[in-house]
């Protein structure tokens, strides 16, 4: 018979819009769910990266990064950098930033590329400025990734950062943090 996990996954509508070139997901901490979603995405997207951030006793991560990126465009380079600055329950997660360089096509004989960085920042940081530290690290890492992967004859058409930033300007807990 079916397990409750299989029943739940089969009840999810996995129809993806055809006009979206790149999907970035966060909070896919469980490999079973990430594998299922990857299988579904591969029906429409030729390039998928998931399950980044190795769980081990050495790094004390019980959960991976939860990040998944699916693209219709070929992935030319990818790098994951984990946050070392974190607190509370996030210490067991490999949260960080997944940086990807995509080949979008050619224009006037030059390769056109795009950069996408997907992240999942500290949840419930409290009074500690952890999210600011993570954003600062991200800015440095993304710049380094661009500098080490961009060829001189390439045109960058897109450079975007997305993710679960875990803050807003409305919640009482975040008004004092920022």
What does this structure look like?
The strands form 2 sheets. This protein has a 4-stranded mixed beta sheet with strand order 4-5-6-7, with helices on one face. Strands 1-3-2 form a 3-stranded antiparallel beta sheet, with helices on one face. It has 4 helices and 7 strands. The chain starts with a helix and ends with a helix. With about 180 residues, it is of the alpha+beta class. It has helices at about 5-10, 30-40, 130-150, 170-175; strands at about 20-25, 45-50, 70, 75-80, 95-105, 110-120, 155-165. The model has no long low-confidence stretch (mean pLDDT about 85). The protein is about 25% helix and about 30% strand.
Strand order of the largest sheet: 4-5-6-7
Question: Helical segment tally?
Answer: 4
- What level of helicity do the residues show? 10-25%
* Percentage beta strand: 25-35%
> Low-confidence parts, pLDDT < 50 over ≥5 residues?
none
Derived structural class = alpha+beta
Average residue pLDDT: 85
Overall form: globular
Total count of strands: 7
How would you spell out the order of helices and strands?
HEHEEEEEHEH
Task: Describe the main β-sheet briefly.
Answer: 4 strands, mixed
């Amino acid at each position: 018979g079916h397990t409750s996990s299989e029943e739940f996954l089969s009840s999810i509508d996995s129809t993806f819009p055809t006009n979206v070139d790149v999907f970035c997901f966060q909070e896919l901490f469980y490999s079973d769910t990430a594998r299922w979603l990857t299988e579904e995405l591969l029906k429409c997207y030729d390039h998928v990266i998931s399950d980044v951030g190795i769980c081990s006793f050495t790094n004390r991560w019980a959960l991976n990064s939860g990040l998944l990126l699916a693209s219709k465009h070929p992935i030319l380079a990818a790098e994951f950098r984990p946050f070392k600055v974190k607190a509370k329950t996030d210490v067991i997660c490999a949260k960080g930033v997944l940086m990807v360089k995509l080949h979008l096509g050619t224009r006037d004989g030059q390769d056109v590329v795009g950069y996408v960085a997907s992240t999942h920042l500290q949840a419930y940081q409290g009074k500690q400025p952890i999210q600011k530290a993570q954003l600062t690290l991200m800015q440095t890492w993304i710049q380094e990734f661009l500098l080490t992967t961009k060829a001189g004859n390439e045109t960058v058409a897109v450079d975007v950062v997305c993710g679960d930033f875990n803050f807003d300007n409305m919640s009482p807990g975040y008004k004092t943090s920022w």
